[in-house]
Write a structure and sequence with these properties.
single chain, 76 residues, alpha+beta, GMP Synthetase, Chain A, domain 3, 3-stranded mixed beta sheet, 39% helix, globular
Length: 76
């Protein structure tokens, strides 16, 4: 569910939605979601001063309250 949520949000923000890639894995009991985008879109996903990335993380945290810890990485 979290993977699809990040994918939907990221695709709405970028110019190259077909190049959004999201992976999900478990590492030491923490769900790690990694988001990669076209090089021209990385800044749009991060946002000014990281505000968009923080907002995505907040939504993920709210959506996964009963599922344990979750972490979002944005690949360069």
């Amino acid at each position: 569910m979290q993977k699809e949520l990040v994918l939907t949000i990221a695709r709405a923000l970028v110019d190259y939605p077909e190049e959004i890639n999201v992976t999900e894995e478990e590492v030491d009991g923490v769900t790690v979601i990694t988001l990669s985008a076209h090089k021209d879109d990385v800044g749009k996903v991060i946002g000014k001063n990281g505000k968009i990335a923080s907002a995505i993380r907040a939504v993920l945290t709210a959506a996964s309250k009963d599922r344990g810890k979750i972490r979002l990485n944005i690949a360069d």
